Amino acid sequence: MKKWIILLALVALVFTGCSSKQESDNTTAQTEGADQTAEKEVTVLKVGATPVPHAEILNLVKDDLLAQGIQLEVVEFTDYVKPNLSLNDGEIDANFFQHVPYLNTFNEEHKFNLVSAGTVHVEPLGLYSDKLESIDALEDGSTIAIPSDAVNGGRALILLSDNGLIKLSEDAGLEATEKDIVENTKGLKFISVEAAQLPRVLQDVDAAVINGNYAIEAGINPAEDALILEGAESPYANIITVRNGDENREDIKLLIQALQTEKVKNFILENYNGGVVPAF
C-alpha cells in the first residue's frame, strides 16, 4: 500500500512540474510578445499649437495618424512667441499657429532657421466693434486697436487701407506701420495690443482688428460680426512650421497629408463660420 502511495505522489509531482513549465512557457511567450510589441512602438510627434482652431484641427487627425504609427501629442500655447522658441530649442517637433510673413520676420529677428512644411488654412483678419454696426458709423478721431507684432500690425493697416479707411504709401510693404499712412481723413488713432488680448479691449476702443483664431476663441463669429473681413484670397495661410531639414521627415510628411484632406476641409467649413478657410 505504501508503494502505491509513493507512486501516486511521484506521478502528481511530475504533472505539477509539467504544469509549472507550461505556465512558465506561456509567461515567456507573453513576455516575448510584449517585447515584439515594444519594438513596434509608435513614433511620438509633438506639435505646438494655439487652441482655436489649430489644436482642434490637429486633434481631428490624431486617430488617422495613429493608424500610421504616429502618436500625435498636441502642446497648446496661448501666444505667438513661445511656439517658435520651443520649436527651435527642440522641445517640440513642429508648430501650427502662424503664416509665412510672420515666420520670416521671426526668423530674421531671432536668427532662427525655421521653415514651412505645408499650408493648412487662412484665418481672415477682421475689424470688429462693440459700438458700431458698420464702418460708415466710424467717427472722426475714433480709436482702433491693432495687433502689436509687426506683421499682423501691418496686415491690419493694409486691411483698413483696402477698405478706404486710410491710405498707405505705394511702397508700404507687408509690415506697414503708421509712418506709411499718407492719408487719414477721419484722423483715426491707433493703439497696438498683443494679439491675444485684442478681444478683451473691444469695450475700451471704438474698433479692433482681430486675428481670426482669437476672434473665434472669444466667441466672435467672423462671418456675421466683422465690419470688414479679409477675403479667402488672403496670402496669410497658416502653416506647419519645422526646423530646417525636418520637412523631409516621414512623420512630418504624414502629418501634412493628414491635414490636407477632404475630412479636414469639411471640418473647417462646417465649424468656423467663415473665420477659417481651407488653403489647400
How would you sum up this structure, described in words?
There is one protein chain. The chain has 280 residues and is an alpha/beta fold. The chain has 2 domains: 43-124 and 235-278, 3-Layer(aba) Sandwich (D-Maltodextrin-Binding Protein, domain 2), CATH 3.40.190.10; 126-229, D-Maltodextrin-Binding Protein, domain 2, CATH 3.40.190. 41% of the residues lie in helices and 22% in strands. The protein contains 10 helices and 13 strands. The protein has helices spanning 2-39, 51-60, 62-66, 82-88, 100-110, 150-162, 212-217, 222-225, 250-259, 262-271; strands at residues 43-49, 70-76, 94-99, 114-122, 126-128, 143-147, 167-168, 181-183, 189-193, 207-210, 228-229, 237-243, 277-278. The strands form 3 sheets. A 6-stranded mixed sheet has the order 2-1-3-12-4-13, sandwiched between helices. A 5-stranded mixed sheet has the order 9-6-10-5-11. It is globular and about 65 Å long. The chain starts with a helix and ends with a strand. Residues 1-22 and 27-38 have low confidence and may be disordered.
